[in-house]
Design a protein that fits this description.
Helices cover 39% and strands 20% of the residues. The chain is an alpha/beta fold. A seven-stranded mixed beta sheet has the order 5-4-3-6-7-9-8, with helices on both faces. The protein has a two-stranded antiparallel ribbon with strand order 1-2. A hairpin with a 5-residue loop joins strand 8 (259-266) and strand 9. Helix 6 packs across helix 7 (123-131). It starts with a helix and ends with a strand.
């Protein structure tokens, strides 16, 4: 079987399973199974696949047709221009979250220090530290698997020396002094518990602990509103990812008085995706 035929057959299988982007996903699976680049695929469409690569592609395609997230199958996904390790049991980094990186980069001072709460794969601190060699970070998660994956990703890019990884289920035990931070950033669980069962099956294969925001979706926002202000320097910022504009408006209403609301920011799809406050 040559590359062109393998891509076509894989796309047909994915399309029959009802996936939205079968051609694109077929190409990504083929590139990984064959261990080739896209430029090689374009230049050599009739190159013959080895039997081992055909078997691997078939197995990967079956997993995808069964609803396993593409990112878990590939074991890697790009965030802010850098491929990161991804793995089952840890939230998949998404391009929507890149708006947090953009806003953080524009607000962090020279030699700033920030904390990422619920770091998951470590995508946010990795992007910020890679873009700004003057920064240092604390990356916190309650999931040991997430911290292990964050360690792998930060090590891959030589950033471990500037980032403290901390396992915590309660912000109170994070080793950060009062007024130590210039930024607290977080993509917390924000889906109301009652809505979890209605999520697409593929999303439900990600860890529910990274999705479940409690009864109304605001559980962890409230916790961070309580904890973060005292850890921020005056003039520091609190930056959250949100699910929609209505959620952002409600957060502006429940924020403590020591924080000044500074705006809602949109992702590449023009959807409200982040909200920010200034510590006064």
């Amino acid at each position: 079987m040559n590359l062109s035929e393998a891509r076509r057959r894989t796309a047909e299988r994915l399309r029959a399973s009802g996936l939205e982007s079968p051609a694109r996903e077929a190409e990504l699976l083929l590139l990984d199974a064959a261990g080739i680049s896209r430029s090689f695929l374009v230049a050599h469409p009739f190159f013959s696949l080895e039997d081992a690569a055909v078997r691997k592609l078939s197995e990967m395609t079956a997993r995808r047709c069964a609803g396993e997230p593409l990112q878990y199958i590939l074991g890697s996904w790009e965030f802010y221009g850098r491929p990161l390790h991804v793995a089952p049991g840890v939230l998949i980094p998404r391009s929507d979250t890149e708006v947090l990186v953009e806003q953080a980069l524009s607000s962090l001072p020279h030699e700033g220090r920030f904390l990422d709460w619920g770091t998951g794969s470590g995508c946010i601190p990795l992007a910020l530290l890679a873009e700004r060699p003057d920064l240092s970070a604390v990356a916190v998660d309650a999931n040991p698997r997430a911290l292990g994956l964050s360690w792998r990703n930060l090590k891959k890019y030589g950033l471990l020396s500037r980032c403290l990884l901390w396992h915590s289920r309660n912000p109170e035990d994070i080793p950060v002094r009062d007024e130590e931070l210039d930024l607290v950033v977080s993509n917390p669980p924000y889906i109301p518990s009652s809505r979890l069962s209605s999520l697409p099956g593929e999303v439900r294969k990600e860890p529910l602990s990274a999705l479940d925001g409690g009864e109304d979706g605001f559980c962890w926002y409230r916790e961070l509103f309580r904890w973060a202000p005292s850890k921020l320097r005056h003039g520091g910022r609190l930056l959250f990812e949100i699910g929609d504009g209505e959620q952002g408006g409600h957060l502006a209403e429940i924020a403590p008085s020591c924080l000044i609301f500074t705006g809602i920011f949109h992702d590449m799809s023009r959807k409200p995706r982040a909200v920010s406050w200034l510590r006064v």
